[in-house]
Amino acid sequence: MTAKKVESTKTEERIHTVEEALSKTEEFIEKHQKIILIVVGVLIVAVLGFFGFRKYYLEPKEKEAQAQLFMAEMYFEQDSLYKALNGDGNYLGFLDIRDQFGLTKSANLATYYAGICYLKMGDFENAISFLRKFSGGDKVVGPMATGAIGDAYMELDQTDQAIDYYLDAADQSNNDVTAPLFLMKAGMAYEIQGKYKKALEQYKRIKTEYPRSFEATEIDKFISAMEGKVAE
Q1: What confidence tens digit (pLDDT) does each residue in 51-102 have?
Q2: Cα(197)–Cα(195) distance, rounded to whole angstroms?
């Protein structure tokens, strides 16, 4: 058999295999046509429902939540923490915004603010509870929420947990604002525990990784102090 005939035979076999597969597919579709149509219909309804929900429910809710959040943020900036949390009778506070606008970004941000309010008010357990519920994707607010949990644990004299959260916050975003801030806090917490070598490691990270940060301006004296402690 010549090479051309062999190739022709192989081509015919491939065509036959494809035709056979198509035939089986057609048979499957015919056999399960009703189920397939139902599944496709459900998917279409689900997609349309999602976009409809977002456009006609979630977006208006978001606008309303933002208006309420604006006033609560104003009270927060003024240190009127009770009004920021609970509202003033005309506008909602962070707690009600979180409850009434639960699926919005504003409600999520209200959760963060509520945690910070409780932290400032000395209610550290509630601060931890709310800050843990915050879903932070922001490069600044996310680490700040995590670091604030560390602050609450420090106030509760749970230094190990505080350090864990400080280091987590430092690693969440590689920027000159939050990362060196929480490395410094972690270092100081290690100092409290007498773990001077660990403290030194955090201070050196600030010097090498974030030399342009505010914390780096006086980090040399912290490094020198810890090197002295380690050498003792």
Answers
A1: 343 443 445 667 887 888 899 999 999 999 999 999 998 999 999 999 988 6
A2: 6
Residue 134 phi, psi (nearest 5): -75, 130
The domains of the chain, with CATH numbers, are 136-232 (1.25.40.10)
CA angle 18, 22, 28 (to 5 degrees): 145
How far is Cα 86 from Cα 91, in angstroms, rounded to an integer? 9
Contacts of 61 (CB under 8 A, 6+ apart): 101, 103, 104
CA nearest to 116, candidates 158, 159, 72:
72
- CA 14 vs. chain centroid, Å, equals 52
Q: Of 157, 161, 185, 173, whose CA–CA distance to 209 is shortest?
A: 173
Q: In degrees rounded to 5, what are phi and psi of residue 156?
A: -90, 10
pLDDT in tens, 180-191: 999 999 999 999
Give pLDDT tens digits for 110-155.
999 999 999 999 999 999 999 999 987 678 899 999 999 999 999 9
The secondary structure element, H or E, covering residue 231 is helix 219-231
Handedness of CA 216, 217, 220, 226 (dihedral sign): negative
Burial class (CB in 10 A: 0-12, 13-18, 19+), 168: middle
Q: How far apart are CA 232 and CA 226, in angstroms?
A: 10
| pLDDT (tens digit per residue) in 4-26 | 444 555 555 555 564 565 566 66
